[in-house]
Specification:
Structural class: alpha+beta
Number of helices: 1
Shape: globular
Strand content: 25-35%
Strand order of the largest sheet: 1-2-3-4-5
Order of helices and strands: EEEEEH
Radius of gyration: 11 Å
Length: about 80
C-alpha cells in the first residue's frame, strides 16, 4: 500500500486500484488507531481516530483533495506534501 504522506505521527496510504473498491478513499494510521476516509466528502467511513488527528487529516485532505482524486484515478502514486 503506497504511502501518500506522513505528518504528526499520522500515516496516509492508498491501496492500488486492483485491490480496492469504491468509494474513493484513503487509509489512515495513527498509533493504534486506523480509519478510512472517503475522498469526496472527507467523512470517516471505517474505524476511528482521536478528534485532533481527525481534524488534521481532514485539513490535509481538503488542501490536497484534487491531487488525491487524481492519484486514485491514474494510480500514479507519489508523495503529497505533509501538513506543517
Amino acid at each position: 500500500m503506497p504511502e501518500l504522506s506522513r505528518f504528526y505521527g499520522i500515516i496516509i496510504r492508498m491501496f492500488t486500484i486492483d485491490t480496492e473498491h469504491p468509494p474513493m478513499h484513503i487509509h489512515i494510521k495513527y498509533g493504534e488507531y486506523e480509519a478510512v476516509m472517503e475522498i469526496e466528502n472527507l467523512n470517516l467511513i471505517e474505524g476511528n481516530l482521536p478528534k485532533r488527528a481527525r481534524i488534521l487529516v481532514r485539513e490535509w485532505a481538503e488542501m490536497h483533495q484534487a491531487e488525491i482524486k487524481e492519484i486514485w484515478e491514474t494510480q500514479n502514486f507519489h508523495k503529497i506534501a505533509p501538513l506543517e
